[in-house]
Amino acid sequence: MSIVDSIAKRRTYYQLNKNLPVAEQEVIGLVETITELVPDAFNMKSARAVVVTGGQQDALWDAIYDAFDGKVAREKIDGFRAAYGTILYFFDTDVVKGLQEKFPLYAANFPVWAQQANGMLQFSIWSGLRDLNIGANLQHYNPVIDEKVKAMFGLPASWQLVAQMPFGGIVAEPDAKEKEDIAKRVKVIR
């Protein structure tokens, strides 16, 4: 499959279940490989990923629901909880600070570059999951859940949570995408 085919196949899947079409280890291997391959400015390797499955998947989304004290509908959270697992995306602020000190001329850019690398990681894993016939969606319940998540999984204080990606078996396909007039967003200048 070409990279364009992979990107075209990647969609936001909200209706997920706990039935993976591949072994869990294949998903873990995908996350490990892509995390190693995705570039990061100055080769800082700031991105961190945590794959949560099994009973911890349910506990994670129960904790997220509790963190919002009922302000997020239980049905919405249960949709994410129904997935096989969740990939938590972070970047390590200690790595960023170290490079800010080493290269002060670029200090303001390192947090931006860490976010850009994290976005590339999220998108690459999302596309890779879809190549495995796994659906996923991307959520942003941070910063409300940050400390709770770090405490639940014993993660370093320096890891800053960026996003949560529930993934699992596909229950239903999303609606078809509307074709857009791409000339409104892409200009070619010769």
What features would you describe in this structure?
The protein has 190 residues and is α+β, with helices and mostly antiparallel strands. Helix content is 44%, strand content 16%. It is built from 7 helices and 5 strands. It has helices at 3-9, 24-37, 54-67, 74-81, 93-102, 109-131, 146-153; strands at residues 16-17, 47-53, 85-92, 135-136, 159-170. Strands 1, 2, 3, 4 and 5 form a 5-stranded antiparallel β-sheet that branches. The protein is globular, with a radius of gyration of 18 Å. The two termini are 31 Å apart.
What secondary-structure arrangement, pairings included, does this model have?
Blueprint: H1 3-9, E1 16-17, H2 24-37, E2 47-53, H3 54-67, H4 74-81, E3 85-92, H5 93-102, H6 109-131, E4 135-136, H7 146-153, E5 159-170
Antiparallel strand pairs: 1-5, 2-3, 3-5, 4-5
**What's the total helix number?**
7
Shape: globular
Poorly predicted sequence stretches spanning 5 or more consecutive residues: none
- Number of E strands: 5
| Backbone CA Rg | 18 Å
Structural class computed from helices and strand pairing:
alpha+beta
Profile the largest sheet. 5 strands, antiparallel
Short description:
This protein is α+β, with helices and mostly antiparallel strands. The chain is about 45% helix and about 15% strand.
